[in-house]
UniProtKB/TrEMBL annotation, chain A:
NCBIfam families: PRK07081.1. Gene3D superfamilies: ACP-like (1.10.1200.10). This is Aminoacyl carrier protein. Residues 1-78 form the Carrier domain.
Length: 84, 393
């Protein structure tokens, strides 16, 4: 499941002061303490893990605003790359 | 409003130039004594330039950021401290205009700013945090419909002369450092205990003393949107663009002084090009770079305006950071060229070619949110953000 991998990488790279399993999928990650530096580290880890590249239109705060937003962005990229 | 009639018949630039003329007359005194640029600010108020960006529905003129930047550029040529005071006020205005829509208290406040030409200061910097806008240690205490806040603010420009302050803090005492809100406090709602005196190299008239800030007021004065959004979509870009515009102004006046030095030399030796002329040509080319940088940034901002996705895009943040880095570095090179052109006449105070104030004021640009900090942020973003290689896009 994409979402489990996202949670796993978020707890490694997110630098969030609370435990990631305490967060709901839709909780705001920036409010939880995700910095823009950490969000880039997380993005790099996700790119490595899924062997994908985040396209320009997904490089914004919204894509990383919650666990489900990240998972949705990833599914979009994975689908696009399968089609291509 | 009996003054409104004749003033409104003039263009914004004409009104700004009238205020700049007053500010320029006091620029050296303001700098020398490190005092608030009262005359310049009074002139800006008399020209009704404080609430320009507010929509006409609330008593403003609905000016664009590009128009405000033009005013900042004009003021920067006359008195950098007046220009910076005005620019910082407009940064707060942009946050209010764009992010407080629908909040009754803030809409009423916007109306008051226009009517009474109020001046708004900002307290983001905090002891232990430095220039990292997106982090706070202090937390606002909400108690029913009242709030209380104490902040060890290391720098509040014109704090003692402002009518209100916009202060950042954590949302509540348990919130993460980056979970911030911005709150407006009115002069009668806060006390300022001075903790640091602004005796600096330049920008001396901004009177950016440090204060222990203590406030209490109604909870409805908290801006309705999270500060994260306000910072990303408005404050960072607006700061870099308005600062860039006034820094252009400082450099433009330096080049004007160097040019008049070269021209008067040329008039004395007809047929011979004065030695400074080549450097002047170089300075003029660099000044054009600064101008193009700011104008391109403004264009990108106006195109993205009103579209949260475009304003939140990494490529947009990279572009705005680049405006700040490019302008803040290049103005120093330009003014230094001008100093070489004018020689001792530029180095000395009190000559028509004096450049000491320009050079000292310009040195604040790279510290005002440290360039190293900004370059650090940009370099992180460039790990994932692809470069925009198009010329026009
Ligand atoms: C004219 C003027 C007016 C101002 N007015 C206001 C105001 O009204 N309100 C307000 O809140 N603030 C104001 N400021 C403060 C300003 O916004 C910054 O907060 C301040 O300039 C940064 O202070 P600092 O250099 O001590 O701190 P820091 O940002 O902590 O920087 C200190 C040094 O550490 C280095 N450094 C720190 N962090 C990093 C990093 N992450 N990466 C790389 N290097 C780093 C930098 O090289 C820097 O030189 C004003 C500043 C100026 C110059």
């Amino acid at each position: 499941m994409i979402i489990d991998t996202v949670r796993n990488l978020l707890s490694k790279h997110g630098g969030i002061p609370v435990a990631v399993d305490q967060l709901a999928d839709t909780d705001d990650l920036y409010d939880a303490g995700l910095s823009s530096f950490a969000s880039v580290q997380l993005m790099l880890a996700l790119e490595e893990e899924f062997d994908v590249e985040f396209p320009e239109h997904l490089l914004n705060r919204k894509s990383f605003a919650s666990i489900s937003a990240i998972a949705a962005a990833l599914s979009e990229i994975v689908e696009d790359q399968e089609v291509a | 409003m009996n003054v409104a009639g004749p003033i409104m018949a003039l263009t914004l630039a004409e009104r700004a130039k009238r205020a700049a003329k007053v500010a320029g007359q006091f620029a050296d005194t303001v700098d020398k004594n490190g005092r608030f640029p009262q005359e310049g600010m009074d002139a800006l108020k008399a020209e009704r330039l404080m609430g320009l960006m507010v929509s006409p529905d609330f008593g403003g003129e609905g000016a664009t950021l590009t128009q405000i930047a033009d005013v900042c550029g004009i003021l920067g040529q006359a008195c950098a401290s007046t220009a910076m005071t005005y620019a910082m006020h407009q940064i707060q205005m942009a946050s209010l205009v764009d992010h407080a829509a629908g909040s009754a208290w803030h809409e009423k406040f916007l109306r008051r700013i226009c009517e009474d030409q109020l001046l708004i200061a900002s307290a983001t910097s905090e002891a232990g945090i430095g220039g990292n806008l997106r982090n706070s240690i202090c937390a606002i205490e909400v108690d029913g419909d009242r709030v209380r806040l104490e902040k060890d603010a290391t720098v509040i420009s014109y704090g003692a002369n402002a009518d209100a302050v916009m202060v950042t803090s954590r949302r509540h005492s348990e919130a993460a450092h980056s979970d911030q809100v911005a709150t407006i406090f009115l002069k009668e709602q806060y006390s300022l205990e001075r903790t640091a005196v602004w005796d600096t190299l330049g920008m001396r008239g901004t009177c950016s003393d440090g204060y222990l800030f203590k406030a209490e007021g109604p909870a409805e004065q908290i801006l309705p949107k999270p500060f994260a959004e306000i910072a990303a979509q408005s404050m960072l870009a607006v700061s870099h663009l308005l600062w860039g515009a006034l820094w252009f102004g400082i450099a433009a006046d330096a080049v004007a002084r160097a040019q008049s030095f070269v021209r008067s030399a040329a008039r004395k030796t007809p047929g011979q090009t004065p030695p400074g002329a080549l450097r002047l040509a170089e300075a003029s080319s660099l000044l054009q770079l600064v101008k193009a940088n700011v104008v391109a940034g403004l264009k990108q901002f106006e195109n993205a305006k009103g579209e949260p996705d475009a304003l939140n895009a990494m490529s947009f943040a990279v572009a705005m950071n680049n405006v700040k880095i490019g302008t803040s570095q290049t103005i120093l090179t330009i003014i230094n060229h001008c100093m070489l052109i004018c020689g001792i006449a530029g180095y000395k105070n009190g000559t028509p070619f004096s450049l000491g104030r320009h050079l000292r004021d310009a040195h604040s640009a790279q510290l005002m949110i440290s360039n190293d900090r900004i370059l650090g942020n940009t370099s992180t973003m460039l790990l994932v953000n692809k470069q925009d290689t198009s010329l026009l896009g």
